[in-house]
User: What shape does this take?
Amino acid sequence: MNYPHIIGWMKTEAPTSLADDLAGRDDDQLLDLMQSRPDLASPPPPGVAVLAQRALSAASVNRSGEELDLPSIAILETVSVLGPTPVAAADIVKTLSGRLDPADISARIDRLVDLALLWGPPEALVTGPHLAAAWPWRSRLATAAINTLTLEEIREKIAALPERERELLGTLASGPGLGRTRDAALGPDSDRPVPRLVREDLLVVVDDQTVELPVVVGQLIRGEDPSEPSDLRPPELTGAGGRKIALSEVDAAAAGEALEFLRHAGDTLDTLGVQPAAVLRAGGMGVREIRRLAKLVGVDEKRIGLVLEVLAELRLIDSGFPVPDISDGVEPSWAPTSSTDSWIHQAAERRWFSIASAWVNLQRRPWQIGGRTPDGTPIGALVGEMAEGAARAERLLVLEALGAAQAGADVTPVSVARYIAWRHPRWVRRMPRTTITETLSEAQALGLVAHGALTSAGRQLIAAGAADEVEKHTVAAMARSIPSPIDFFLAQADQTVTAPGPLTPELAADLALVADLESGGAASVYRVSESSVRRALDAGRTGTELVTFFTTHSKTPVPQSITYLIDDVARKHGQLRVGVATSFIRCEDATMLAAVLNSPVAEQLSLRALAPTVAVSTDPLIEVLEALRAAGFAPAGEDTTGALVDLRTRSARLPTPRERRTARTSALVPPTRDRLATVVTHMRSQDAANAAVATRIGAGGSAVTGGGTPAAALLQTALNTKRTVRLGYVNAQGFASKHIVAPRMIGAGQVVAVEPGSEEEHRFSLHRITTVEIVD
Assistant: This one.
C-alpha cells in the first residue's frame, strides 16, 4: 500500500488526530481530498483544523458514502468489527481476502485514506466517531453472517420459514428494510418470529427496537437475481451468452433509432403547431390530447409521452396563448415555441445531442406517465409538480453501468442491476428493477443504446470533462454514425418511393408534400396517392412540376403509374376556382358548375349563380374549399389575380420561456482545481498565521487591536524595521482571516504587503484591519 503523506513516520509516531494527518499532506493531496469531497471546501475552511472538523462530521461522512462501492463499505464495516481503532491494514486484508483480491483491498484502503475516512500508518489506521454514517444501511450488512452462504442456501432458508415469518420478510422487502419492534430486544431463545429470524441470520438487530433486513434477502424475496453475496468482486457486465457486437453495428442501429425519434419529435411539433393541445386545470396535458397526438404522429402513447417531456425540457413546447390562438385567449394551450424554427434547421446530430442531453437531465420519469403515485394520484404528462430529483441520477447510474462494460457487449438489465448494487450500494433499495428496465428502454428509443450496448456517442455523452468538449465529441461521434444525407430516392411501380438513407431537409420537405410516409427509419418508404398529389397541387405545385420533381430526383425511371396518377389528378384539379369576394366560385366548364349548384353542398354554402361560370357564397374561402372537397369536388384556391394560393394552416407559436418549465433541485457543483488551489493557499496562510509567535513586548514587539491610526503606526514601524506582521482582516463579504505579511507600502488608506517567500503583492484596507502583531 502507498501512503505518501506518512513516509518517514515511525510506528510510534502515528497521528493522534485527523488534523495532524491533514497537516502532513502536501497541497496536491489536499486538492484531491476536496475534489472528492467538495462539501469540505464550501465555504473555504480557515485552516486545516476546520477542514478536519468538517471531514469528521456525520453529514460529510454520510455524503462521502454516496460514492463508495461495496468493497469499500465492507472495509469500513470490518474496521468497525476489528475496532476500536487503531486497526492494522493487514488484519483487514486477512479478514476479507476470501471475498476480494488482496491487491484490491489494499487499493481501497488507500482510497479511504485519501478520502480521510481512515488515516494513520498501515499498522495503526484510525477512524472518526461517525464511521457508520458512510454505510448504506443502519447495521453491518456487507459483512453480515448471511453473506457467507450461497444464494441457493439462502433461498432454502427462506422457503423453510413458516408463513408468518415469510410475510414479515415480505413486508420489510417492500419498504426501506427497517422494522420497529420491541421483539428486537428479546433473547435468541424466544419463539417470537423476529428472534427466530435473527437466529437464522435473516434479520439483523440494529438496536433494542429496530431490526434490518439483509440486502440479499430482500432482493430474493422481491424476485430479483442478485450476485453471490460472498463475492465482493465486480460482477460481469455481460448478457445473451456473452454475445458481443461490433461497435460500428451498435452505432448504426442506434443512429436509425435516433433519426426515427427526431422524426417523431418534428411531427409532434408540426401537429401541435397546427392544433395546439389544451392545458388541464391542474397543468399538463390530458389523456385525450395525448391519444390524439399519438394517433396523428403514428406512435404509441408511451412514446409520445417521452417525446413531449423531452421537447418541454428543451423549451421547444410550452403552455400559454400561442399566435394564432385557436381558443381566442379563453384557455391556454400547449404549442411550439419560437425556438422550434431554429432548432428544426440544425444538423441531425446537433438536434440529437440536444434531445439526448435533455433526456439525461430531465427531472421526471416519462415512462411513469399513465401510472399512479403511491397515494393513487394519476401521473400525467408535462405536470411541473411531478419533478423527481432522483430521475437524473438513475439515468446516469444506468449509463455508467453500460459504459463500464466492454464496447459492444450485450448487457442485460440483470447485469446492470448487479453492477449498480456493487458500485453504488445505497441505490439497491432506491432503484427497483422496473426503473432500470424502463430507463434502458428510453435510452434505446433515443439512440443511446442498441443491442444492449452503449453507443460511441453515449460513451462521449457521459464522459467527464468540460461541457463544450463533451458536446463537441458527442456530436462528432453521432455524426459518424448517421448516414450522410442523400438527394435522391427510388420511385417504384406500386406508387411507393424508397429513400435508402436520410434525405436532405429540402428534399424531405418536398417529398412529404407529394407523398405520405409509410415507414420511417434510416431507410424510409413513402406512398404517392390521389390525396397526396392533390395536397401538392393545393400548395401551388403544377402537374408538370411534380413530374419534373420525380424525374430529377429518382435514381430509377419514373413509373407510368405515378405519372398517370399525377396527370389525372392535375387534369381535374383547379377546374373549380374559389376566390375571396366574400367567396366566389368560377369554372370554365359550365356543366361542372351546374353540377355543384345542383348538389346538396350548394344549399350548405348558400351558393348563388351570377353567370353560367361564376357563383358566390357568404362563407369564408377556407370553409367553401373544405365543403366542396367533402362533396367530392377538387377545387383550388386563387387570389384576386387568378393565381393559385397556398392555404395550408400556419403553425402556432409561443415565445420561448426564459427559464425551464420544471424547478431544478439544488446540487453541489464540484469546484474547479484552480479554485481549490486558492482554498488550499488560504488554509496554509491561516495555519501559518495561527502558528506564528508574537514578538515579546520587552524585546521591542507590540500588538494593536482594531484599525485606524494605532494600526497604521505599528505597520509603519514594521515597514521601517523590515519586520513581519500578523494581520487580522475582514473582507467586504464579512469573511474573517489572518495573514502573515511583510509591509511594502502604506498610503491612501491601504497597506501593500507580500507574504514571506513570495513577491506577489496583497492589498489590505486599513479600516478592515482588526489586529496587527509583529511576529518573529
Q: What stands out?
A: The longest strand covers residues 736-747.
